[in-house]
Amino acid sequence: MQIKNILIIRFRRVGDSVLSMALCHGLRQSFPDATIDFVINKGIHTLYVNHPDVDNVITFDDEENHNPVKYISKVWKTMHNKHYDIIIDMRGTIKTLWFSLFSLSTSYRIGTKKRYGKGILNYMVDNHNNMLSRVQQNNIFLEPLKKKFDIKASEKFSLYVSDEDRLNFRQYMQNQGIDFNKPVILCTPTARQEYKVWPKEYMKEILSKIIQKYNLQIIFNFSGETEKNCAIAYHKEMNDDSHIFTNIEAKSLTELCALTANCDFFFGNEGGPRHIAQALDIPSFAIFPPGIRKGLWLPKESIRFAGISTEDIMPVDEQDKKELTYEERMKLIDVSSVWKGFQNVFEQNINI
Fold first, then answer.
1. Which residues of the chain carry a pLDDT beneath 50?
2. What's the CA gap between 177 and 131, in Å, rounded?
3. Phi and psi at residue 308, in whole multiples of 5°?
4. Which pTM was predicted?
């Protein structure tokens, strides 16, 4: 059987979609002549335009996602415009089953093992092993293909920035006061969801230590007015320290990639920007809040890509036994532990 067309259904947010590039890379290596189409939410699709492991990006905007008639109509049109030999439903919801339902002639309709998938998906996999990273869980979708094909699974997930975009943003950074003779750290002191943010006083103390010891430059990354205002408030509370920059703004994901590619290191709260940094091979150290398992979201933790979570300080079962509140669990990640972890990773990767 010749595989000509492959459809990957992902949706979701930046982090999930970035990590799914390992699956796309494995498919590209396994079926180099096939066309790979990637279904994603509009707004984050620019990350995958001209990506070597994706041929076509199929987007759904908020209106299409929330209007059943428009959603089903677009799914039907998508599935009738092209015959797919392989469908991999990474999202695994009742809504995403419509893709396979409209293409029952597809030989491989692969998805997560769930009761409502019976009769629509012909290959269902159990990929909920909590001992695996998200990348490893995603690669389980390839298992049904291994019986007939030489599958080259990969844990490599990458993003790409054009030379033009990188150089243009580098010039913008220089115009805003960045001196590329000194190290540049991209920092996320805030987060899209406030409860995931490490305590402000802790973060300010660490940033002060970093500046005092290394005399480098820190760019605060933010998304939207709320995060921007919070970042500016951080800066003011740190007496508008000249080592910190809040005047450099990435207004799109394309610009965020270009900004990240021009930095030497990433530090801050875990989230999409950290995934982007790892995909661009920028060394990083992230803080994982309670409930966000580091082993799941930080594939192949190493001296180059590392982080700290509450589990590193106290086992989850012990946290549960002590009936710690969310705030108490967050504060388990103390300043000294973060400082020790940061220094180790930073000094192993950055020449000072």
1. none
2. 45
3. -135, 140
4. 0.93
Report the SS3 class of residue 198: coil
Q: Percentage helix, strand, coil, to 5, in the chain?
A: 45, 15, 40
Rounded alpha-carbon distances, angstroms, from residue 238 to 200, 231, 335: 11, 11, 17
Q: How confident is the model at residue 29, as a pLDDT?
A: 97
As a dihedral over the C-alpha atoms of residue 295, residue 287, residue 176, residue 164, rounded to 10 degrees, the angle is 0
Q: Which residues contact 279 (CB under 8 A, 6 or more apart)?
A: 18, 21, 157, 158, 159
- SS3 string, 206-242, reads HHHHHHHHHCCEEEECCCHHHHHHHHHHHHHHCCCCC
Tell which residue, 299, 238, 345, has the closest CA to residue 21.
299
pLDDT of residue 192: 77
| Residue 40, token pair as written in the block | 């994603």
- Which DSSP letter does residue 93 get? -
Residue written as token pair 């430059």: 217
